[in-house]
Design brief:
Helix 5 crosses helix 6, helix 9 (about 315-345) packs across helix 11 and helix 10 packs antiparallel against helix 11 (about 370-390). The chain is globular. Strands 4-3-9-10 form a 4-stranded parallel beta sheet, sandwiched between helices. Strands 5-6-7-8 form a 4-stranded antiparallel beta sheet. Strands 12-11-13 form a 3-stranded mixed beta sheet, covered by helices on one side. It folds into 3 domains: about 20-275, Rossmann fold; about 335-415, Four Helix Bundle (Hemerythrin (Met), subunit A) (Up-down Bundle), CATH 1.20.120; about 425-470. Helix content is about 45%, strand content about 15%. The chain is an alpha/beta fold. It has helices at about 40-55, 75-80, 85-105, 120-135, 210-225, 235-250, 285-290, 295-300, 315-345, 360-365, 370-390, 395-410, 425-440, 440-455, and strands at about 5, 10-15, 25-30, 60-65, 135-140, 145, 185-190, 205-210, 225-235, 255-265, 265-270, 270, 310, 455-460, 465-470. The structure holds adenosine monophosphate and zinc ion. Zinc ion binds near residues 29, 215 and 240.
């Protein structure tokens, strides 16, 4: 089967054909940097990482953009409460986000545009002006600018939505009085007192962009009017992605996106893991309990992206353990298998068994069927282990299997080597400890080791200096 993906727009599996092969343009909605991302968010980012890696394995050249939403109600509120500038407030969360990406081995996108960068703000304003010119947007009495959904007949096609459902019924919230239609969404939000010193000048007065226009402006600015793939979690479908289509196509008159791909949620007791429900773990929470980025990556990647990952256990603690225990077992199997293969490949054994096939890749071609692909991996492990038990696997075959692992690991990124960059505070402690040891201050050195341990890091002193690794937690 050739490469196929499920397109949310058509609700069907479609053969993948980018506009300009082998190039693929891909836009993925990024984090709002008002706190650290939770593992639900990372389920979305890991799905996108798997998608990019598989496309690359299949020879495509992926150009991926992920936006950073660094202005919205929540970031403004956070900055106000902390009594610091918006930028000072969002900066540490941005940095933390990149550290988390490294921890989970998520490939970096080519670009991470920020919504408050002047270049993109200018583009948003330009797009809004164009929409007004085309009668697709209007400034309301409250001075905000809204998209006029009645004038865009395609509105609702992505979400398969009946527009009638968006008509006002009974009471309308006071902040929506000004709009012509309850479904009209804000493109430009007029400044109000809550915004404090956050705001930009525009032809419609001081204000700030709406969240949806940010993505339309940044995606088209960097990837052109027409994208091959646009991703997010299913909660992004409406209104966010629906609005992106209306704005982008409203301005360009061209089909915005070929393939819309959305991942199902990470749930807790049948509810979406989310900040607002308070039922979430940040990646840092999980790592602090002693689990590695590799284990969490495995836990989040192993279930098909369109299948919900649900925790129905009593407490979050238990679900976290179940999530990571499975990973630990699976990863140990892989590690032990690789170890055996390495021994066999270095031996003189001449006998061979059938070598690897490309089943792993072919299974992934079917809408990223990762559970099927992992099935191929574990079945291969079982078979080769059996052959090694029976002394039937030769050195050449073992080498072929090791090579196969290297290849599939370009997609899985599950090798045992922890390659994460050290968080800055850990790096500072490690450096302080190095200096303490140079000064032969052993007491200080021990204190710093305890400090690093407490933060979940293991320190080993070797002839090449100290080695810092993630601490492996207790078996749950
Ligand atoms: P947000 O910061 O809420 O805009 O979310 C960032 C990304 O994470 C979006 O693509 C969301 O769709 C996705 N997301 C949020 N919560 C979850 C969840 N519980 N499971 C999977 N993806 C999620
Ligand atoms: Zn977006």
């Amino acid at each position: 089967m050739a490469l196929h993906f499920f397109n949310t727009y058509s609700r069907a599996l479609e053969k993948f054909a980018p506009r300009h092969p082998p190039n693929v343009s891909m836009y993925t909605c990024g984090p709002t940097v008002y706190s650290n991302a939770h593992i639900g968010n990372f389920r979305a980012y890991i799905f996108e990482d798997l998608l990019q890696r598989h496309l690359e394995m299949r020879g495509f050249k992926v150009h991926r953009v992920m936006n950073i939403t660094d202005v919205d109600d929540k970031t403004i509120r956070g900055a106000r409460e902390a009594k610091i500038s918006l930028n000072a407030f969002t900066e540490p969360f941005k940095r933390g986000f990149f550290e988390d990406l490294d921890t989970l081995r998520i490939k970096r996108a080519d670009e991470y545009p920020g919504a408050t960068e002047p270049h993109y703000l200018a583009r948003m304003i330009e797009m809004i002006a164009e929409l007004i010119k085309r009668d697709l947007a209007y400034q309301a009495e409250d001075k905000s600018v809204y998209f006029r959904i009645n004038k865009f007949p395609e509105y609702g096609k992505l979400a398969h939505l009946n527009l009638e459902e968006l008509r006002p019924t009974g009471r309308v919230r006071s902040d929506e009085y000004e709009k012509e239609n309850i479904g009209d969404f804000a493109l430009w939000k007029a400044w109000d007192e809550e915004d404090g010193d956050v705001g930009w000048d525009s032809p419609w007065g001081r204000g700030r962009p709406g969240w949806h226009i940010e993505c339309s402006a940044m995606s088209t600015a960097l990837l052109g009017d027409q994208l091959d793939i646009h991703c997010g979690g299913v909660d992004n479908i409406f209104p966010h992605h629906e609005a992106e289509i209306a704005q982008s196509e409203g301005v360009t008159g061209k089909k915005f996106v070929r393939y819309w791909m959305h991942c199902a949620h990470l749930l807790v007791d049948n509810q979406k893991m989310s900040k607002s429900l308070g039922n979430f773990y940040t990646l840092r929470d999980v790592i602090a309990k002693g689990y590695s980025g590799r284990e969490v990556r495995y836990a989040l990647v192993r279930v098909h992206y369109r299948v919900q990952l649900n925790f129905t256990f009593d407490g979050m603690e238990e679900s976290r353990q179940a999530l990571t225990r499975k990973s630990r077992q699976a990863l140990t199997r892989i590690d032990e298998w690789l170890e055996r293969l390495r021994e066999t490949s270095a031996s003189q054994k001449a006998r061979g068994t059938p070598g690897p096939t490309d089943d792993f890749q072919r299974v992934l071609d079917d809408d990223l069927n990762i559970s099927g692909a992992l099935g191929v991996l574990f079945e291969s492990i079982r078979e080769t282990n059996r052959a090694m038990d029976a002394n039937e696997l030769g050195a050449t075959a073992a080498k072929a299997w090791l090579q196969w692992w290297d290849e599939i690991n370009r997609v899985l990124a599950l090798d045992a080597v922890e390659t994460v960059a050290l968080p800055s505070e850990v790096e500072a402690l490690a450096e302080a400890r190095r200096l303490a040891r140079l000064a032969k201050n052993w007491q200080k050195s021990d204190e710093l080791r305890s400090e690093l341990n407490a933060r979940g890091w293991e320190v080993r002193d070797t002839k090449d200096g100290q080695k810092i690794t993630r601490r492996v937690g207790p078996e749950p």
